[in-house]
Please model this.
Amino acid sequence: MPDFRQRGDRPFRPERDPCEFASTEDAADSTAVAPRLLVGAGMVRQVAFTLNGKAVRPEVDDGRALLWVLRSDLGLTGTKFGCGSALCGACTVLVDDEAVRSCATRVGDVAGRKVVTIEGLAANGTLHPVQQAFVDRSAFQCGFCTPGLILASVALLHKKPQPTREEIVHELDGNLCRCGSHVRVLAAVQAAAKANAGAVKGGAR
Ligand code: FES
Ligand code: FES
Model:
């Protein structure tokens, strides 16, 4: 296990996300509960894609999970690691405007595509209307699930600008929130729909 303690006066910043090491070890353990972790074993190459409106070209194992490339290689830690098995939605990002679980997406599969993370939603210092609706309705407590829920909501409103309550519940059902903020999340998405948030795209809009 690498030493993650602070060294000298340098800020604490492990070279790789500690969660990634944990998941790699889990993956090597056949008794681990997370059977679908994408930990690599692809081909090391440059994978070019658009990230939050900018072209990026990280040189990576193309079989690694997009989640780890975003967090460990590109420093975008707004995308969260929850289950690592496509079960909780904490790692949701947008790929070509669709909500995608980045823990279960090979980085090689986003080559040539447009990826938006929570860091790319606000534009020119102004929150995306869905972010603003979450703030206005206090639709979070600890906030761990929030980036995934916001991006899943943006994707929903993009394809269906005026969803019914049932459609919102159905779409966000797989985004788990251990703090139980679902009722306020629902209110936030309904408010965002009213404000026509579906017309506002994320990522260098
Ligand atoms: S971390 Fe990806 S779905 Fe849970
Ligand atoms: S706000 Fe804490 S997990 Fe959802």
In short: DSSP finds six helices and seven strands in the chain.
